[in-house]
Amino acid sequence: MAAAGAALGPLVTGLYDVEAFKFANFVLKSGLSSPVYIDLRGIVSRPRLLSQVADILFQTAQEAGINFDRETCLVIEDVVTSGSSVLETVEVLQKEGLKVTDAIVLLDREQGGKDKLQAHGIRLHSVCTLSKMLEILEQQKKIDAEMVEKVKRFIQENVFVAANHNGSLPPVKKAPKELSFDVRAELPRIHPVASKLLRLMQKKETNLCLSADVSDARELLQLADALGPSICMLKTHVDILSDFTLDVMKELATLAKRHEFLIFEDRKFADIGNTVRKQYEGKYYSGICKNQ
Question: From which residue to which does the signal peptide run (predicted)?
Fold first, then answer.
């Protein structure tokens, strides 16, 4: 049952205003021409809207009365069409010993996903259905009646029918073959530095890169010496060091050789504000700035 209440209308409007719902002629990955396109990725940069989404998802889960006893896991999805992505997630979770009985979705496109999930023992609880979304947007005069009918007709003509009714889940897509770091290091056209890094990662059994954004050279060297055995790469900002000298770099290179890690100098001026300020204040560029 779609979530009701005063929060749904403003949420749908907010999503429409940030173009999460688009109405025109779109060619989908399947090759179908669709009058509606739904893209919710943009809400991650809209904190207020993201908070609304989180609140209403939580409210929907509460209203559904879902119990999380022991190893029960709830799947949360943004959009459900055929339900395949939810089923793939469920199978992976079940292989790890988790129990999945329910899924929450922000928007159910009403194209057979709910029935397909139900056939596999998964109850789908939607915050909003596509029909309800169209109703709200039409009432608010965001879209006209002609577009509403066009979308509804498209949905009715493109419903996915649940094929499995025996409770078994469809096979998960075959994962690509995993290659070891050593094998990847030998791939053709790989950059020599990338190859060296991969070999270090294999040898030291680590993929840790330490971001040493410190302004004191002695602190930088102490960090490199203490953590060098555990990392494969050290990221530096030598231009923010207040006491930068070439001798410091020689010592750092010696430590890199001793502990077997690469040095990655993060050289750019389009960084975050605090880093850019430190770059101009650091000794590396102080002489250049004073002479301008």
Answer: none
Helix, strand, or coil (residue 105): strand
- Per-10-residue mean pLDDT of the chain, 292 residues long, equals 67 92 81 84 89 92 81 89 89 89 92 90 92 93 93 88 56 67 91 96 96 91 96 90 88 97 81 64 53 45
**CA distance between the termini of the chain:** 67
- 124 and 9 Cβ atoms separated by less than 8 Å: no
Is the pTM for the entire model greater than 0.85? no
Active site residue 239: no
- Choose the catalytic residue: 99, 203, 250, 268: 268
39 is catalytic: no
The rounded distance, in Å, linking the Cα atoms of 222 and 19 is 50
Q: Measuring CA to CA, which residue among 55, 79, 45 is closest to residue 6?
A: 55
Domains of the chain, CATH where assigned? 8-157 (3.40.50.2020), 206-290 (3.40.50)
